[in-house]
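RECORD TYPE: inverse folding
INPUT: structure tokens
STRUCTURE:
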């Protein structure tokens, strides 16, 4: 079944109160064409499965609250005269949750989904014969998404005038590519700044232990042995710190997603800590922590043992 989405601002929706409760529904209701409505639209217009709605392609179309009911004019009873526009009655067959879309963040998704023939009958201009309609874009779902690039090349080669591209390379994906590169730049700057801060902090911590290092030197432990011990200690500390950071990120992911999903009434995922992201963080944090510890200790171990113990 071909399903096409029609935005609410192109439609005038009027609900029969007798149908909204699911009781007293006319016998012909089952014969009406079925549509789907978004959850936000259903909540706003108090629609339920089985409700009868009237759709029109014009905002100022004639609407009725029921058979023989009053006419609804835009702007109230004294509004402008209504134009004669085609209207059709539909039955709400289901309520769906709209797919999350970052480009529409903060906007209420007030939509209906109709069968393609019903939508064409509703929106076709009177002078346009049936079958002469045109579409601007078509989305194609492939069995194997990895074939998207090859499929696009075949379409561009075999259908002159058509422009096919994978969804990630579509025109609307440009802002998100820029945002991704911006995040990458911010991440690089953050890692460099954190490394400098970590090195300075490690130098201060190692300097506080210079007496302990001096005693180890005086009892005969070679520099290589001390460096190995420092390296192991650095790896353990950096691993514990990295794991703690991952746990904090996972907890923050839950809090951030739930807050902003509630704030914007969407299922869009704002933060996602995947296993790949966690592994990348560990792969960066542990070597940096161990390297900073060894570098700070090496500068300390080059001093004379007596100077380290201040004798």
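DESIGNED SEQUENCE:
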């Amino acid at each position: 079944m071909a399903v096409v989405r029609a935005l609410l601002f192109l439609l005038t929706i009027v609900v029969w109160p007798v149908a909204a409760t699911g009781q007293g529904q006319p016998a012909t209701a089952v014969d009406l064409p079925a549509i789907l409505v978004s959850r936000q639209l259903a909540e706003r217009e108090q629609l339920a499965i089985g409700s009868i709605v009237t759709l029109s392609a014009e905002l100022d179309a004639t609407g009725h609250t029921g058979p023989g009911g009053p006419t609804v004019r835009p702007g109230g009873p004294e509004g402008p005269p209504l134009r004669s526009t085609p209207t059709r009655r539909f039955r709400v067959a289901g309520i769906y949750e709209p797919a999350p879309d970052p480009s529409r963040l903060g906007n209420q998704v007030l939509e209906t989904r109709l069968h393609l023939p019903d939508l064409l009958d509703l929106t076709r201009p009177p002078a346009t014969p049936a079958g002469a309609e045109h579409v601007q874009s078509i989305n194609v779902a492939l069995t194997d998404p990895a074939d998207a690039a090859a499929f696009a090349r075949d379409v561009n080669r075999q259908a002159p005038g058509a422009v096919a591209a994978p969804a990630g390379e579509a025109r609307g994906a440009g802002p998100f590519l820029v945002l991704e590169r911006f995040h990458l730049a911010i991440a690089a700057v953050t890692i460099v700044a954190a490394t400098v801060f970590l090195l300075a902090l490690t130098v201060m911590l190692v300097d506080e232990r210079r007496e302990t290092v001096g005693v180890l030197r005086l009892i005969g432990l070679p520099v290589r042995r001390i460096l190995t011990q420092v390296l192991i200690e650095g790896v353990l500390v950096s691993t514990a710190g990295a794991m703690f950071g991952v746990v904090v990120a996972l907890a923050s992911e839950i809090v951030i997603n739930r807050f902003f999903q509630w704030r914007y009434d969407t299922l869009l995922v704002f933060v996602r800590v995947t296993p790949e992201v966690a592994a990348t963080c560990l792969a960066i944090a542990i070597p940096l922590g161990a390297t900073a510890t060894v570098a700070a200790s090496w500068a300390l171990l080059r001093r004379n043992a007596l100077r380290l113990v201040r004798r």
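NOTES: The chain has two domains: 3-123, 188-308.
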